């Protein structure tokens, strides 16, 4: 008979294990972990979600952080709490994984879900308000960070490598002033563009009229509420960092990708330029590459090719392709030859 001989641990490993047990030993902390499963929130937001005082929630977050279960991410002056990634070879890994698996099976009570929706609505309102105020200065604001001309060629190379047929459809989420629409209109039989800002949509409409884009349908809609029937290619160009809950948004937008189709995402890599929140209405200061890949996987998408472009102003852009698996007998675009992926400054 095979007997597993436990590895002897150091004395301070016992403290780590105790911290983990302590963190899991409170119903509210378990709910905090559940809420942070695919989202991140600030202390005040969590206090609102759990309807308790700031000092109370701070105490619980401290206990969770001491157990290595939550970590912080700084977004300008604000600090957001998220689930910590497991340490590569940390002690307590089995207990931690089991605890989180049980936590993820918890159903959140309706009042908590309602207050999460309230927090998301408050964040979304900040973003909507920004675009309604800033439409006339939109291009100048975009150029502060990354204008489309700086990465257009790379993005189109990635798109063209996906080899869509002449009958394929595209859905652009948040087209802004529509700078990408002429390129999409050339490549797809039908393009739908959803934007929730009337002012931005008007700019896109003017561009479509100017360029005679007859296969583009513009819709004033919140992309997360709209029941669009789906497209072969869903494009998010510099939009995700304006969404209140990006992981959840990615999940909903992945549902809009037809089986065998693609989601093409252009985003800023993580940065620490806090002024972008004020100047460009960004809710999130870019995203980690791994974080996007994890959210895409949770949304049922498979990773494809990626391109990274470094800009002279220090920002880095990631262009990511994610594929939706085909259903049995479904179509899937021919795999693209891997483009080179240098961090080429432009
Ligand atoms: C930074 S602009 C990007 C515009 C364009 N894709 C580009 O790169 O030039 C973000 C756009 O997303 C839109 N947007 C933000 N949240 C949205 C939502 N929930 N549904 C639809 N559009 C949204 C904004 O109104 C804005 O036009």
UniProtKB/TrEMBL annotation:
- Fetch the CDD domains from UniProt: AdoMet_MTases, HTH_ARSR
Where does the source fall among the domains of life? Bacteria
The UniProt record lists the HTH arsR-type domain at: 9-118
Renumbered residue ranges of the record's region Disordered:
324-346
Concerning InterPro entries, the annotation shows: ArsR-like_HTH, HTH_ArsR_DNA-bd_dom, SAM-dependent_MTases_sf, WH-like_DNA-bd_sf, WH_DNA-bd_sf
What Gene3D superfamilies does the record point to? Vaccinia Virus protein VP39, Winged helix-like DNA-binding domain superfamily/Winged helix DNA-binding domain
The protein here is known as Transcriptional regulator, ArsR family
